[in-house]
């Protein structure tokens, strides 16, 4: 396995992805990780990532000295190259010639990293993003590729197996970048490349057993992909030591609660407490119209109900969460201070922060699509592993204004039709999220010979990779009119349908 030490680059996660895609297990740790921890991990090679700081600044981040004493291959990328060269006795300087974006390197000599892709004399496209560059090499290094802004574009010390790259091989704009990384992990470090999701599953099960021992674990199940996969994985490891608590706030999509309960109880034999608290949630939401107040009310009740149920089963030693890699922002400050900020997981409208329990987070090192692959590996149904993200407060934030049981039921019907049509058109997987919003607007319509005066509803469908930015999904007019026709005809209470074509930014995905 490979260890990636993170100096805070925006694209460090991509290095991890590329390494895993080549069949090699890896983990990303902050560069402040302790020597003991690094040695215990026993990596076959270490990659030093890029980062926003400048090696020329006093107090800027450095690689732990121990990585140079372990006798394992090293690959420094961008900032990682610069700090490696500096720490080994070379020199780094700022320059007027900054390079951002597409650039070209001239390959001057053969190198283990280039096997099968780059030959001496070739000019190759890469993606650069740097102001500083290496100006003097440490002993033992040679230059194997150059660029206009970085005379030391790729450097190598073959005897120690240390390599430095000024550009970013992990991004797609460096066309052969994945192969360069693969050459490092496979040829230089000797990784076999046989790591798979099945191997991850087996290792994760062992890790969970070792962590939990004979302790009791509870898991707040939301029906979403992350908590569902975490629960099934943990159940595989410790069986009935795990109890899942499903707090039903009555704001799920039609049929979703029944599906979650059936899947987990009947199919996976997981101990599941299903608490129907919909009366309580809807009661407390009565008269609440402000979106943030809705979220807070739901979050507070969720914790109350969760704690009640936890007390009923006699407490637990561990709390399981489906936290993913992107939820864990291990940010490293430009000055090298060991500041680690963890963004709290907000899948279920805010999990009990005050609960002083140890956390079991078996998905911490994975990306969303890897979690889906793991779910499939565990035999989970496609309706769960492929499911669109769904907000913790559920339909409450898709009903601007006051939430009532009647409005929830109307919205559920419209939503079911919309998703049915999306699935039967084969579009579900091409869309990040699709849902209906029940608008607090009544408009006049005509049905048969009669006048109607009912609610309007909006359809929303967006594409996105992480929910941070989003684009409207370009349905055909034929598809939209079919959905509108069905909703107006089949759902009493809605007589008008609109399509929301706002991107994010400036809009948000949800309406509240
Ligand atoms: P916005 O509306 O901010 O949504 O563009 C971005 C993503 O976050 C989800 N979302 C939430 N998820 N609790 C959640 O668990 C919330 O309060 C919440 N609000 C928005 C939204 O569905 C989208 O995936």
TrEMBL record:
Pfam families the record matches: GATase (PF00117), GMP_synt_C (PF00958), NAD_synthase (PF02540)
The protein's Enzyme Commission number: 6.3.5.2
Molecular functions (GO terms): GMP synthase (glutamine-hydrolyzing) activity
Residues forming the catalytic site: 78 (nucleophile), 168, 170
Keywords per UniProt: ATP-binding, Glutamine amidotransferase, GMP biosynthesis, Ligase, Nucleotide-binding, Purine biosynthesis
PROSITE patterns: GATASE_TYPE_1, GMPS_ATP_PPASE
Matches recorded under SUPFAM superfamilies: Adenine nucleotide alpha hydrolases-like (SSF52402), Class I glutamine amidotransferase-like (SSF52317), GMP synthetase C-terminal dimerisation domain (SSF54810)
Catalytic activity of the protein: XMP + L-glutamine + ATP + H2O = GMP + L-glutamate + AMP + diphosphate + 2 H(+)
Gene3D superfamilies: 3.30.300.10, 3.40.50.880, HUPs (3.40.50.620)
The organism's place on the tree of life at top rank: Bacteria
Pathway(s) where this gene product acts: Purine metabolism; GMP biosynthesis; GMP from XMP (L-Gln route): step 1/1
Residues annotated to bind ATP: 222-228
InterPro entries per record: Class_I_gatase-like, GATASE, GMP_synth_C, GMP_synth_GATase, GMP_synthase, GMPS_ATP_PPase_dom, NAD/GMP_synthase, Rossmann-like_a/b/a_fold
Subunit structure comment from the entry: Homodimer.
Function: Catalyzes the synthesis of GMP from XMP.
Descriptive protein name: GMP synthase [glutamine-hydrolyzing]
């Amino acid at each position: 396995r490979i260890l990636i030490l993170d100096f805070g680059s925006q694209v460090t996660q991509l290095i991890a992805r590329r390494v895993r895609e080549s069949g090699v297990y890896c983990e990303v740790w902050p560069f402040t990780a302790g020597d003991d921890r690094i040695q215990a991990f026993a990596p076959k090679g270490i990659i030093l990532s890029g980062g926003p700081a400048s090696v020329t600044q006093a107090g800027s981040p450095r690689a732990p000295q121990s990585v140079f004493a372990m006798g394992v291959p090293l690959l420094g990328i961008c900032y990682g190259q610069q700090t490696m060269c500096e720490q080994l006795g070379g020199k780094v300087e700022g320059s007027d010639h900054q390079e951002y974006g597409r650039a070209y390197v001239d390959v001057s000599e053969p190198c283990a990293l280039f096997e099968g892709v780059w030959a001496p004399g070739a000019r190759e496209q890469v993606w650069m993003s740097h102001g500083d560059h290496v100006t003097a090499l440490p002993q033992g290094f040679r230059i194997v590729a150059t660029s206009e802004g970085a005379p030391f574009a790729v450097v190598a010390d073959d005897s120690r197996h240390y390599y430095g790259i000024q550009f970013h091989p992990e991004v797609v704009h460096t066309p052969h970048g994945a192969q360069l990384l693969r050459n490092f992990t496979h040829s230089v470090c000797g990784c076999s490349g046989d790591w798979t999701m099945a191997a991850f599953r087996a290792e994760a099960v062992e890790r969970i057993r070792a962590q939990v021992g004979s302790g009791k674990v509870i898991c707040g199940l939301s029906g979403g992909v992350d908590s569902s996969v975490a629960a099934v994985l943990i159940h595989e490891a410790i069986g009935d030591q795990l109890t899942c608590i499903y707090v039903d706030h009555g704001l799920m999509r039609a049929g979703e609660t029944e599906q979650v309960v059936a899947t987990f109880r009947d199919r996976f034999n997981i101990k599941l407490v299903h608490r129907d608290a919909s009366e309580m949630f809807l009661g407390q939401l009565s008269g609440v119209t402000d979106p943030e107040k809705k979220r807070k009310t739901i979050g507070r009740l969720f914790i109350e109900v969760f704690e009640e149920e936890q007390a009923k089963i006699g407490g637990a030693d561990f709390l399981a969460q489906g936290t993913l890699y992107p939820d864990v922002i291990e940010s490293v400050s430009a000055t090298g201070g060991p500041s680690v900020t963890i963004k709290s997981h907000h899948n279920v409208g805010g999990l009990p922060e005050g609960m002083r329990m140890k956390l079991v987070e078996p998905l911490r090192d994975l990306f969303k699509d890897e979690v889906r692959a793991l779910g499939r590996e565990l035999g989970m149904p496609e309706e769960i592993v492929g499911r669109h993200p769904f907000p913790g407060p559920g339909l409450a934030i898709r009903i601007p204004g006051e939430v009532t049981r009647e409005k929830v039921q109307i919205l559920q019907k419209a939503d079911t039709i919309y998703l049915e049509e999306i699935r039967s058109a084969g579009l579900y997987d091409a869309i990040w999220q699709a849902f209906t919003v029940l608008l607090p607007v009544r408009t006049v319509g005509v049905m048969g010979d009669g006048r109607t005066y009912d609610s309007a509803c909006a359809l929303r469908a967006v594409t996105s990779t992480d929910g941070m930015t989003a684009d409207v999904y370009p349905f055909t007019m034929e598809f939209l009119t079919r959905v509108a026709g069905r909703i107006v005809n089949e759902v009493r209470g809605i007589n008008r349908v609109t399509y929301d074509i706002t991107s994010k930014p400036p809009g948000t995905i949800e309406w509240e």
